[in-house]
Every structure is written in C-alpha cells, then in structure tokens.
Write a structure and sequence with these properties.
heterodimer, A: alpha+beta, Beta-Lactamase, five-stranded antiparallel sheet, 17 strands, B: Rossmann fold, six-stranded mixed sheet, 6 strands
C-alpha cells in the first residue's frame, strides 16, 4: 500500500527514487534502471563521502538536500531521507526530481550573464574603470549652473564637509568654497574650503563647461584637487627665505620687513647690533665647526636674557640684532646690555674637554634716528657704525 | 580501491571546470561555459577513485552552497592569476571549506599561468601562509596542462596518506 502510494505520487510529480539500506545496497528503484542489490554509489556518485551524514539522518531527522545536480544535459534536485519498509526495516530513500525546462532556460541565462561578466572582468574597460574609480575617490566634484548654484555633488564632497547632499545642493558654491587671490593671473583657479575637522584645505579647480546641442554652456562641472601640500611647501619656502638655517633665528630680510612696519606705524625704534670680536680668528684657531657652535652658543645666551617680546635676528656671519618693542625705554635697554656683556664673559663656549673658547662682543645701540626713512638706510647706518666701533676698539688695544 | 570526494572551490570563471576537464579528459576548450549547480566527474589514479565535484563559482550575487562541500576529503581552491579579486577571495574560501570540513587539506591552484601575470614567489608564500592546512600553492594552466596533474596528485597523496 505504502509503495503503491509512493509510486503514484512520484509519477505525478516526475520524481524518480531509489530505496537503499544502510550498506548502500539498492532495495528498490522507480523510473531508474539500476540492479537491485548493487551499490547505489556506483550510480549516484553524489553519495560518496556523505555516508556518515546519511547514516545520521535517523538521529538528526534532517534530510540532505543537493539542488541542481547536472547529469548529461539535465538538472535534478537530490534529496536523501529515511524510509521504513513494510517490515519496519530502517532504510533510506533518494528522491531525484528532474528540473523543468524553465529551470534549464534560467540556468542558460545565468551562464550567459556570467560569461559577459567574465569578459568585462578581464577587459581593459574594467581596468580603466578601476583606475578612474581610484582617482575619483580623491577628487571633489560638483556641478554648478550658470548662476553658481550647486546642482550635483559627489560622495567625496559630502564626506569632505560631512553634510548631507541635500543640504549642499541649491546653495551658491561660494557658500562652501572661497576663491583665492592669484598673484600670477587675474582669475585664480585656487580656492579654499573648511572641512568637517575645521581645517582649511586648498584646492586647484578644473572647470569643465557642459554644452547643449546648440553649443551653449548650460552648466559647469568643477573638479577640485587638494593642493594643501603645495601651500605647505609655499609656507616652508617663505619661512626659509626669512630665517637662518644654523641658528633658526629670523634673518636680515625679516628684520627689514619688521623695520618697515615700525617706520610705517611711527613707533619708537630701538635697535641693537651684537658682533663677536675676532670671530675670524676663532674660526682659524678652532675650526669653522667651533665657529658655528659659538654662533649657536651666543644665540642661546641672547635668547635666555632678552625679553621674548623683543625680536632677535642673525644678520650675517657673526652679527646679530635685537629689535626692542616700542614700549621699552633706554634705562631698560642699557641695563640689559650690561647683563649681556657679563654673560658673555662668564659663559665661554666649552667646545671640547681641552678647548674652551672665551669670547666678547661689540654692542651698538641705535636710538631713534628720525632722519632715516627706510629700513635699508637704518640697517646700513647701523652696520657702518658697528664697523667704526670695531676699528676704534682694535686701535685702543 | 579507495573512493573519496574532493571539491574545487573558487570564484566564477577562474577555470575550475577547465582544470577538471584537463585532468579527467586531457582536453581544453577556449569557450567559457559557466557551471550552474554541481557536476561530478570520476577519475582513478594509483589506488584511488576520486569523485571530483565541480561546483558553481562564487559570484557577487550568489555565495557558494555549503552543502556541496559536505563529506569532502580535500579541496582545491582555484583563483585566476589575472583577476586580483579572485586571489583576494582565497582566504574566504579557506574559511568556508574549514567551516564544513575542519582541517581538510587544501591545494591552491592559481590558474591561467599561460597568460602574463604579476604574481611572484613572495606572493605565493603569502598565500601559503594563510592556513597550515594548505599543502601546495601552484600556478596552473588548464590550457597548456602545466602543473594540473601535479596538483591533483599532491592532494591525492596527502589524502591517501591520512587513511
């Protein structure tokens, strides 16, 4: 009765089956030509390796399902379950349901898609696409209409500002991006914007006009490349042009700028020059390295004594300058210069265990010089006076 | 005679079917026919009969069906030397195999070696170090037949030695 019902149901649903025992010997088959008593694994290769799992089905009550098994040109689903014989013997049944024509057609469609995907995957087109993707990950791109209103933005842009796309679109681009004045051209392609971390970032912008059929520009695409590093280099070059590399002090150029500022603002000007006596002799006696060390040593003495509000410069070779802030008075400066002289005497440069370099400096103070009009005039005058002072000092020895 | 199952695992289009065809029938076709579901081939070498499962490759939309890996004595994970993403996927395939059959031996076939590629010895070592169960990482070519038999024999040797 049980087998008859099974036959009927399987026939109706186009299912074939094989019943087999725990030794994998075929007990019965339906719609399949297979010898009774033969090993089912010779016919169903799918069962090789699954023996342990099949024998466990009685305890786990979990059938084993293997969908879409291809045999020849047809697909079938295989399902392995428990089966009790009329004599209550514990057997197993393997159902094979042949897949419909539609399934075969579906499989062919998937094969076709896979084929096209593979062709694309290995194509130059995809490689180029990947390169562009990498590049576009770093570029802010936005569209603006002819009135400068932002109409589209890419993800890099929204990520940069950490603002939703909807809140950027519709705004004038100048709300986010600020044009920089160019010293080279009338129109600058450099602009800056403040990112979500409140950092000012500089961009170089390429403006790509988009035209319609009649060649009329309807909008512009702006592609912005971060050039903050170039700005950083610019700053470093600016710094280097106004500073001395040995001592790290501001140099003559910087002093000229500061003096001009004083002159423009008509501030009280107190300038002091400090020059090492016999520096060339020290260089000859101890070597140029010792000379460099002495310059650094003098720098640290000057820095430790002068007020941080006053400014220290190295003009050239062994000549230093102190520009006092306008509020300082003569008494203060004279006291300070005394301290400096004492400090030079009591702090010789200990160059090595055997070499102690004693030194002194000539100091010149330039009080308000109302007759001088430019920074260069002041500096030239000061250096002339310093030379005279040094000659007098030599003659008096 | 010992009969056992092995499965070739990898992304779609890496050449799993071609490797099996080269090994079983010593043939090769330039045409790409992707495998849907599973197809099983049989090959006898030395004193063993191997049931070789050629399963549908992993795609962006369809993961590998775990049930197909059940009862496998070893795996050949196949990648395409010309497609970096298939090499990157090896790690995930190893995990998948070990989730179903713990500690099963694995051979890695880096296929299409007949084409110009960038992978060097250093890269092979890096792949080998992904798992101690990897017994061999070999550049293969189903087209020329280069190293194809070698990889099946190496895996067979390991599996039969564990009996």
């Amino acid at each position: 009765m049980q087998q008859n019902l099974l036959h009927l149901l399987c026939k109706k649903n186009n299912i074939s089956y094989i019943i087999f025992d725990k030794h994998f010997r075929v007990v019965e088959a339906h719609l399949i030509k297979i010898s009774i008593g033969s090993d089912i694994r010779d016919f169903l290769w799918e069962l090789v390796g699954l023996e342990e799992d099949i024998l466990k089905i009685y305890s786990t009550q979990k059938p084993i399902e293997l969908p879409m098994v291809l045999k020849g040109t047809n697909y079938y689903d295989l399902e392995l379950e428990t089966f009790f014989s009329d004599t209550k013997e514990e057997l197993f049944i393997a159902y094979m349901q042949k897949k419909s024509k539609q399934t075969n057609q579906y499989a062919n469609v998937i094969k076709e898609i896979n084929k096209k995907t593979l062709i694309y995957d290995t194509s130059q087109e995809k490689k180029d696409g990947l390169y562009f993707k990498q590049i576009s990950k770093r570029l802010i791109t936005f569209h603006v209409d002819l009135d400068g209103i932002i109409t589209q933005v890419n993800d890099v842009c929204t990520h940069f500002f950490n603002i939703e796309k909807e809140k950027i679109i519709g705004q004038h681009f100048s709300y986010f991006f600020h044009t920089q004045k160019s010293q080279l051209n009338q129109h600058s392609n450099i602009f800056s914007a403040t990112n979500s971390l409140d950092k000012n970032i500089f961009f170089h912008a390429d403006i790509i006009p988009i035209t319609n059929n009649t060649n009329k520009i309807i909008e512009n695409i702006i592609v912005a490349q971060d050039i903050t590093y170039l700005k950083q280099i610019e700053k470093e070059l600016e710094y280097a042009s106004e500073h001395d590399t040995l001592t790290g002090l501001a140099n003559r150029n910087h002093l000229l700028v500061s003096l001009d500022k004083y002159l423009n603002e008509k501030k009280n000007l107190y300038l002091c020059l400090v020059d090492i006596d016999g520096f060339s002799i020290i260089n000859e006696e101890y070597g140029s390295h010792a000379g460099d060390m002495l310059l650094k040593h003098l720098t640290s003495i000057l820095k430790s004594i002068i007020d941080p509000k006053d400014s220290l410069y190295r003009l050239h070779k062994d000549t230093f300058a102190i520009l006092f802030e306008a509020e300082k008075n003569k008494n203060y400066i004279e006291d300070l210069l005394e301290k400096l002289k004492e400090s030079f005497l009591s702090n010789p440069l200990i160059y090595s265990a055997d070499d102690t370099v004693e030194f002194s400096c000539s100091i010149l103070i330039l009080w308000d010089k109302n007759e001088l009009h430019t920074s260069k005039e002041i500096l030239n005058q000061s250096q002339k006076e310093m030379q005279k002072l040094k000659i007098d000092k030599k003659l008096s020895r | 005679m010992f009969t056992y199952k092995i499965v070739l695992v990898g992304n779609f289009g890496v050449g799993k079917t071609s490797l099996i065809k080269r090994f079983v029938e010593n043939s090769f076709s330039e045409e790409y026919l992707s495998t849907i579901g599973v197809s099983i081939s049989k090959k006898t070498i030395d004193n063993a009969t191997i049931m070789i499962w050629d399963i549908e490759g992993h795609t962006e939309f369809k993961p590998i069906f775990k049930q197909y890996l059940l009862g496998s004595k070893g795996f050949i994970i196949v990648a395409d030397l010309l497609r970096e993403e298939t090499i990157d996927a090896i790690k995930n395939h190893i995990e998948l195999c070990h989730n179903v059959v713990k500690d099963a031996p694995i051979c890695i076939a880096l296929n299409k070696s007949d084409m110009p590629h960038k992978l060097d010895e250093h890269n092979l070592q890096a792949i080998k170090s992904l798992s101690p169960t990897i017994i061999e990482v070999v550049k293969t070519s189903a087209k020329s037949g280069d190293a194809v038999e070698n990889i099946f024999f190496k895996l067979n040797q390991k599996i039969t030695s564990q009996l």
